[in-house]
Amino acid sequence: MGAKDIIKLVVSIVACQGAGIIGSIFTTPNIPTWYAALEKPFFTPPSWLFAPAWITLYLLMAIAAFLVWRKGLGEEGVKCALTVFLVQLVLNALWSVVFFGLQSPLYGMVVILVLWIVILLTIIRFFKLSVAAGWLMIPYILWVSFASILNISIWVLN
Q1: How many CA atoms lie within 13 A of 69 on its CB side?
Q2: Ordered DSSP codes for 53-83
């Protein structure tokens, strides 16, 4: 792996983990207060599980984006795939802002459903360019599928 690839990998990791850090700014202060007071479904994971799960998912997403980016921006479909990826990354951070920051399970539900669709589009585009990149995004869509059900359940219960 050359210096340019290392830079691309580092930028990918920083961008993805950065989205997580932005989200955590809105999430962390609301967990012991607002979120703790919500009625939650029986299948809600313990709060401590979310941080390691997301850190891992952001790392997998970063590697996937790197695998696509290293193909070269001149390669057909790469710019489009990375643009869709960046849109889902923004939506990912936006969900935390809306659900936790604005304390709105309803609008959080809207954002996460749009996020799910954009993740699916990212996966489809990534698979066309790198099978490994496509597979690296599968745990993410599975987690967001679960998070969507959890978000909807919280909205219904509250």
Answers
A1: 21
A2: HHHHHHHHHHHHHHHHHTT-TTSTTHHHHHH
Contacts of 111 (CB under 8 A, 6+ apart): 91, 94, 95, 98, 99
Q: What is the spatial distance between Cα 98 and Cα 78, in angstroms, rounded to a whole number?
A: 30
The answer to whether the Cα torsion of 39, 138, 85, 81 is positive or negative is: negative
Which residue ranges make up each domain of the chain? 3-157
pLDDT at position 76 is 94
HSE of 120, CA atoms in CB hemisphere, 13 A: 7
- Fold that domain 3-157 belongs to in CATH: Ferritin (1.20.1260)
Q: Does the pLDDT value for residue 25 go beyond 90?
A: yes
Residue 1: predicted pLDDT: 84
**Contact between residue 43 and residue 104 where contact means Cβ atoms under 8 Å apart:** no
How does pLDDT run across 44-75, given as a tens digit for each residue? 999 899 999 999 999 999 999 999 999 999 99
130 φ/ψ angles, rounded to the nearest 5 degrees: -155, 115
Q: Show the tokens assigned to 74.
A: 């001149």
Query: Could you tell me which residues come within 8 angstroms of residue 4 by beta carbon, excluding any fewer than 6 positions away?
Result: none
